[in-house]
Amino acid sequence: MYKRIRDLREDRDLNQTTVAKYLGMSQTGYSKYETGENDIPTDVLIKLARFYRTSIDYLLGETDLKDRYPDSK
Questions:
Q1: Is 25 helix (H, G, I), strand (E, B) or coil?
Q2: What is the mean pLDDT of the chain?
Q3: Band of the pLDDT at 12, cuts 50, 70, 90?
Q4: Labelling 3: which of 32, 36, 60, 70 has CA 20 to 30 A away?
């Protein structure tokens, strides 16, 4: 999971500070998510999935499909 959030960020040429600002936290706090030093809370996983337009399952490594699930109506 930690490698995936780093890879998604790097693929978009973003720095940790940009993502941390989106999440409303410090760069140091966000860095600890990418290194696995701190577990990522559910609410942060949801925000990251929305930010990267992917699924939480992808972030968690449960699937290799980056696309989000279709919106239900």
A1: coil
A2: 92
A3: very high
A4: 70
Q: How many CA atoms lie within 13 A of 10 on its CB side?
A: 8
How would you class 40 by CB atoms within 10 Å of its CB: exposed for 0-12, middle for 13-18, buried for 19 or more? buried
Pick the closest to residue 48 from 28, 70, 14 (CA basis).
Answer: 14
Q: Where are the alpha helices (DSSP H) in 1-73?
A: 2-11, 16-23, 27-35, 42-52, 56-60
How many Å apart are CA 12 and CA 9, to the nearest integer? 5
| 36 close to 2: Cβ distance less than 8 angstroms | yes
d(CA 24, CA 4): 20
pLDDT reported for residue 71:
58
**CA angle at 30 for the pair 24 and 36, rounded to the nearest 5°:** 145
Distance CA 50, CA 61 (A): 16
